[in-house]
């Protein structure tokens, strides 16, 4: 099993050609940016030693470690309590804006969609059944699945 530090350092080393030392410093900086103070103390810990909210933040740091232009977040707040969910969503939104990164958010939670998305695509049984501006789709849903 890899430590948090090993998992955070591997992508920039492999994909960006970072040195291990530079990747280590970048990982600590990313942990700080995602709201995990004292990131240096987390680097030697293992995933099972962290809470669910901390793990989500580490995963976001890992996803951001190679500076993507598009972040695909698949159910990023599942199994988190409401307070941590709000923190994670705010973090994702702020990071996307700060780095001019596009984000595709996959979720079953229409409340999350209302809060986070400008555009929405609703899928049912593997097919797109509705799409458009989030406010319009949520105010005037056309498909029974969207209506709930």
From TrEMBL:
UniProt KW keywords: ATP-binding, Cell inner membrane, Cell membrane, Hydrolase, Membrane, Nucleotide-binding, Translocase, Transport
GO cellular component terms, A-Z: membrane
UniProt cross-references to Pfam families, sorted A to Z: ABC_tran (PF00005)
Entry's transmembrane regions: none
Domain ABC transporter as annotated: residue spans: 13-78
GO MF terms, alphabetically ordered: ATP binding; ATP hydrolysis activity
Gene name per UniProt: gsiA_9
Gene3D superfamilies on file: P-loop containing nucleotide triphosphate hydrolases (3.40.50.300)
Origin species: Klebsiella pneumoniae
Name of the molecule in the record: Oligopeptide transport ATP-binding protein OppD
NAD listed as a keyword: no
EC number: 3.6.3.-
Superkingdom in the source lineage: Bacteria
Subcellular location per the Swiss-Prot or TrEMBL entry: Membrane
Family (UniProt): Belongs to the ABC transporter superfamily.
């Amino acid at each position: 099993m890899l430590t948090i530090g090993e998992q955070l350092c591997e992508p920039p080393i492999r994909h960006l050609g970072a040195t291990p030392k530079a990747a280590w410093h970048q990982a600590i900086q990313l942990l700080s940016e995602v709201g995990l103070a004292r990131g240096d103390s987390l680097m030697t810990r293992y995933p099972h030693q962290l809470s669910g909210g901390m793990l989500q933040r580490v995963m976001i740091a890992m996803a951001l470690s190679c500076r993507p232009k598009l972040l695909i977040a698949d159910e990023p707040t599942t199994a988190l309590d409401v307070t941590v969910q709000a923190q994670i969503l705010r973090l994702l939104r702020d990071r996307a804006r700060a780095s001019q990164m596009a984000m595709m958010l996959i979720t079953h939670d229409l409340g999350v969609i209302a809060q986070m998305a400008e555009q929405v695509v609703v899928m049912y049984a593997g097919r797109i059944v509705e799409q458009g501006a989030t406010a319009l789709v949520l105010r005037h849903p056309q498909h029974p699945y969207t209506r709930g």
